[in-house]
């Protein structure tokens, strides 16, 4: 099957870059002429009067719209309403780290790179610049409004194997909240009544895997839901830094996120303004049979989404027909009513009014024009941000910074030395400074730069025909074919290794990559790209023992293997390439024209410093719809690093990746390591500035870097508490810890001082620490505040970030950093009573340079409360267990609620420290069982194998959502115990009580 959602949205959006809103203007008669507002049509309408209160303006316009017009506004491509002078409106301009898909624009570091700055003020300025550029593009597109931006992404980087790791900020919810709030505030602008742009935060909720992404289920126990996944979304919403949320593709506790009731019940409770919530692309269709199979028809699914809190349907590209029909049918059948429709349209209109669309002058941001795009100020900001995003991972023996007075010859080698890569959501680079160019510019005429990409240059000779595989020398290349008997430039290819056998082939003849368009192979691609990355190959050894190779085409291969059997290159009678089975594949002798490692070694030998630049290709090494299965460097790249290190002891490794790398050998053996994400147009200047000390690095990691993927549990295991995941709970020895980053100077921390040693549950203390720059360079230090609760009824994080400050300290000078710490922020979710609780306990207050580099500590006593023993006599939700084995949290009904689902014998849930009193007589449970075979629930005390005090037979109820309350007698149930419910058979348990 084809990938869902983004593939279609994204392909459409790429087309829109060339013809903005052309498709949208053909919707419902919304041609460009009709779309222009006419003064006669709109004169005198109160909704056009900016002096009136917002609610009154919305009421006026809503009352003028017909039912059909209101329905039409629920689709992503909203048509014009010519009789009211209303233009078309389109939701969803991508803007994760710059405006994407609309043409050349400022490209800032990827989102994870923005977060590594740990600088909210800078990130807000970046957001403001992106908002200006969105307005600048909009200024030239008067037919439609594209100012609803789909950014930021706040899904937590819980597992670094996530294909979309570069889109998020951090594995920590607090840091994610700070960064997303800053970026969203920048996008929105500072006007209290108007929006520069309307940012939409995504993807709600628990979306950190791409594997089976529309049908995979993110199972969240209540503490993980409240303390972790929701905690990432809440800050930006409570700060009114975003104007809505986008629902995720995945299921959460068995229910598709598209119909998650939290879109209304939770998200809207956080926000101070009305929100406009949208679905992810094509998600309404995912609800249907053949995918999530949750609703039988679009009418049922769209109605459920609307009731859950969705206001805008992103589906079927620019064609609103299915959405319009579904909503109309839902109204006719009584699945929704006019009030549901009005509520959604009201949310939409609130955004459009605040954007200034209905103001006579367009509002305060309407004058931002095309000059804002790629402006000199934004270029300078991109350079500043790229510099601040660089993280110095290691620097033994003061290898860095390089001294330009003595370092005159620098070798810059590696497959990423002289290129810049963009990702799926990048904008188009207006220019690009590569690491090689940045170093060369920094050295100037006084220095010398040598280089090599360190990749093999090869020729492919067909052993059956002696013909060579050849490409074209023109700018657009030509169709690849076996044409000649010599290995000239047209028959030579540079082989780039991206790991796990996947390579790309760049033609020497014109410097373009070989790609496939579904019919022929051609050397015409500037970089690997596209939804289907059709520039991927695997050089597979033949089985005949001759050392010949088969060229496997890997552009369509996915984890789902929907493309079928693997395909190999073969040749037709005219010599052109075609796809064939392995048995019919052409056999090639791979002739090495130039050994990449030898070439690189030659370049670095004798250099004053060797800079080797390796890393990831964002379209290959994990991306949307493709998770990573490994975190190691490509084998060829690792071999290059080892060879360069052996040839030149003063080797600096520059890692340019979108995610953490298990660079264990490199961390042990390479004296200096620098990491940057794909940092946009100014990457090379930033790298050079750090290497030569023009910028003293202060970037900090926002994720744990593990030594091996074996340190991680299954990617689909979202229970960070149970699986000891992320820096919060990980007990192992990381390669590099959360918050890590070095400087060219050193800092001494004084003893942290608390403004009070004791605080009540509603109080705040200030943590003060004096930081002294003890080195010879001015620099920034990121002072990080963590806490650890010493005693608790429940398992607590080993350490948790509570605050930070990036401060600039001159050499030899000191500054005092003061960080507020609210006792309320030390609360955790109490599953026994379903609410937040601040327990009475002593907290270690930890101040340091990373989560594992603690420089000082103090003790804070918090006077909160003690969680009482569980009272299981009252109705208890089964999902509020303390621990579990062999069960899943599932949807209690399609509309709302959680239950516990058991599918096999021996599964259990436990409710710790329950006070049963002198005597408990009965066990009552609300259960559903679609299996007519029945089952049992045994009540045991103390352990899953403890004494049985009651056995409850579970009858079949005919359906997984049909519940019955069943009661059985208990014997010997009294006192204070851990109560285990042990399951036999398949069933769902919603609630229970012991009385």
From TrEMBL:
GO molecular function: hydrolase activity
Boundaries of every CBM6 domain copy: 874-995
Keyword Signal on entry: yes
PROSITE patterns, per the entry: CBM6, TAT
Keywords assigned by UniProt, alphabetized: Hydrolase, Signal
Record bears the keyword Hydrolase: yes
PANTHER family (UniProt xref): BETA-D-XYLOSIDASE 5-RELATED, SUGAR HYDROLASE-RELATED
Family: Belongs to the glycosyl hydrolase 3 family.
Identification of the protein by name: Glycoside hydrolase family 3 protein
Taxonomic source organism: Streptomyces olivaceiscleroticus
């Amino acid at each position: 099957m084809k990938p869902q959602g983004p593939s279609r949205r994204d392909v459409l959006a790429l087309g829109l870059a060339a013809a903005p809103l052309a498709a949208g203007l053909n919707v419902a008669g919304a041609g460009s002429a009709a779309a222009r507002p006419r003064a006669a049509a709109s004169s005198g309408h109160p909704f056009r009067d900016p002096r009136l209160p917002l609610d009154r303006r919305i009421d006026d316009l809503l009352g003028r719209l017909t039912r059909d017009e209101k329905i039409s506004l629920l689709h992503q491509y909203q048509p014009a309403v010519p009789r009211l002078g209303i233009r078309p409106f389109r939701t969803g301009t991508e803007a994760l780290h710059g405006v994407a898909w609309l043409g050349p624009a400022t490209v800032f570091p990827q989102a994870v790179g923005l977060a590594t700055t740990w600088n909210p003020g800078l990130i807000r300025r970046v957001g403001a610049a992106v908002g200006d550029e969105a307005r600048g593009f909009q200024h030239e597109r008067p037919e439609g409004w594209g100012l609803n931006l789909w950014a930021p992404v706040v899904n937590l980087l819980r597992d670094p194997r996530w294909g979309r790791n570069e889109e998020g900020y951090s594995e920590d919810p607090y840091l994610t909240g700070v960064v997303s709030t800053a970026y969203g505030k920048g996008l929105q602008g500072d006007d209290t009544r108007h929006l520069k742009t309307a940012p939409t935060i995504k993807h709600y909720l628990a979306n950190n895997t791409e594997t089976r992404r529309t049908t995979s289920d993110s199972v969240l126990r209540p503490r993980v839901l409240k303390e972790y996944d929701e905690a990432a979304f809440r800050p930006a919403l409570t700060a009114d830094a975003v104007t809505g949320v986008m629902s995720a593709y995945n299921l959460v506790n068995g229910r598709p996120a598209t119909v998650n009731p939290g879109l209304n019940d939770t998200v809207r409770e956080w926000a101070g303004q009305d929100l406009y919530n949208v679905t992810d692309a094509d998600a309404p269709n995912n609800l249907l049979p053949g995918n999530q199979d949750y609703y039988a028809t679009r009418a049922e699914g769209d109605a459920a989404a609307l009731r859950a809190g969705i206001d805008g349907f992103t589906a079927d590209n620019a064609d609103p027909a299915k959405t319009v029909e579904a909503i109309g049918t839902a109204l006719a059948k009584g699945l929704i009513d006019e009030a549901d429709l009005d509520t959604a349209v009201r949310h939409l209109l609130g955004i459009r009014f605040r954007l200034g669309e209905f103001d006579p002058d367009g509002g305060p941001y309407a004058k931002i024009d095309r000059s804002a795009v790629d402006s000199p100020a934004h270029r300078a900001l991109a350079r500043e941000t790229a510099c601040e995003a660089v993280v110095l991972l290691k620097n033994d023996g003061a290898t860095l910074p390089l001294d330009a007075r003595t370092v005159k010859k620098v070798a810059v080698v590696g497959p990423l030395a002289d290129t810049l890569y963009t990702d799926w959501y990048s904008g188009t680079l207006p220019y690009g400074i590569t690491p090689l160019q940045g170093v060369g510019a920094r050295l100037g005429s006084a220095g010398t730069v040598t280089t090599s990409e360190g990749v093999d240059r090869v020729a492919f000779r067909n052993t059956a025909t002696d013909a060579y595989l050849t490409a074209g020398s023109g700018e657009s290349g030509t169709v690849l074919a076996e044409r000649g008997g010599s290995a000239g430039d047209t028959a030579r290819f540079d082989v780039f290794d991206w790991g796990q056998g996947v390579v790309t082939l760049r033609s020497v003849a014109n410097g373009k990559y070989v790609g496939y368009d579904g019919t022929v192979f051609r050397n015409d691609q500037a970089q690997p790209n596209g939804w289907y990355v059709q520039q991927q190959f695997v050089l597979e050894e033949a089985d005949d023992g001759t050392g010949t190779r088969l060229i496997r085409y890997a552009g369509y291969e996915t984890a789902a293997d929907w493309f079928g059997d693997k395909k190999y290159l073969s040749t037709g009678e005219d010599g052109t390439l075609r796809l064939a089975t392995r048995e019919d594949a052409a056999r090639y002798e791979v002739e090495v024209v130039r050994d990449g490692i030898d070439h690189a070694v030659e370049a670095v030998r004798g250099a004053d410093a060797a800079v080797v630049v390796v890393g990831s290709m964002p379209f290959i090494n994990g991306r949307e719809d493709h998770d990573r299965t490994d975190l190691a460097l490509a084998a060829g790249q690792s071999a290059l690093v080892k060879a360069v290190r052996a040839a030149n002891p003063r080797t600096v490794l520059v890692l340019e990746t979108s995610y953490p790398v298990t660079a264990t050998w490199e961390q042990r053996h390479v004296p200096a390591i620098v990491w940057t994400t794909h940092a946009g147009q100014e990457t090379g200047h930033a790298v050079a500035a750090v290497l030569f000390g023009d910028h003293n690095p202060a970037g900090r990691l926002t994720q744990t870097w593990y030594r091996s993927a074996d340190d991680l549990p299954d990617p689909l295991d979202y229970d960070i508490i149970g699986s000891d995941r992320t820096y919060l709970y990980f007990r192992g020895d990381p390669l590099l810890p959360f918050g890590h980053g070095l400087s060219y100077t050193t800092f001494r921390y004084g003893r942290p001082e608390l403004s009070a040693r004791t605080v009540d549950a509603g109080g705040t203390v200030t943590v003060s620490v004096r930081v002294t720059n003890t080195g010879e360079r001015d620099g920034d230090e990121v002072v990080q505040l963590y806490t650890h609760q010493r005693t608790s009824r429940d398992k607590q994080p080993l350490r948790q970030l509570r605050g930070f400050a990036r401060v600039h300290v001159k050499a030899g000078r000191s500054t005092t950093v003061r960080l507020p710490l609210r006792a309320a922020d030390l609360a955790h979710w109490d599953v026994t009573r379903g609410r937040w609780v601040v327990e009475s306990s002593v907290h270690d207050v930890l101040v340091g340079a990373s989560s594992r580099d603690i420089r000082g500590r103090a003790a804070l006593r918090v006077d909160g409360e003690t969680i009482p023993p569980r009272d299981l006599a009252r109705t208890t939700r089964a999902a509020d267990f303390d621990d579990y084995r062999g069960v899943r949290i599932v949807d209690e009904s399609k509309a709302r609620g959680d239950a516990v689902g058991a599918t096999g014998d021996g599964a259990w849930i436990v409710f710790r420290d329950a006070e049963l009193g002198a005597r408990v007589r009965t066990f009552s449970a609300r259960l559903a069982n679609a299996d007519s075979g029945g089952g049992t629930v045994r009540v045991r005390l103390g352990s899953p194998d403890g004494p049985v005090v009651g056995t409850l037979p579970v009858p079949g109820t005919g359906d997984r959502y049909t519940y019955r309350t069943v009661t059985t007698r208990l014997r010997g149930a009294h006192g204070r115990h851990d109560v285990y419910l042990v399951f036999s058979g398949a069933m769902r348990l919603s609630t229970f009580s012991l009385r």
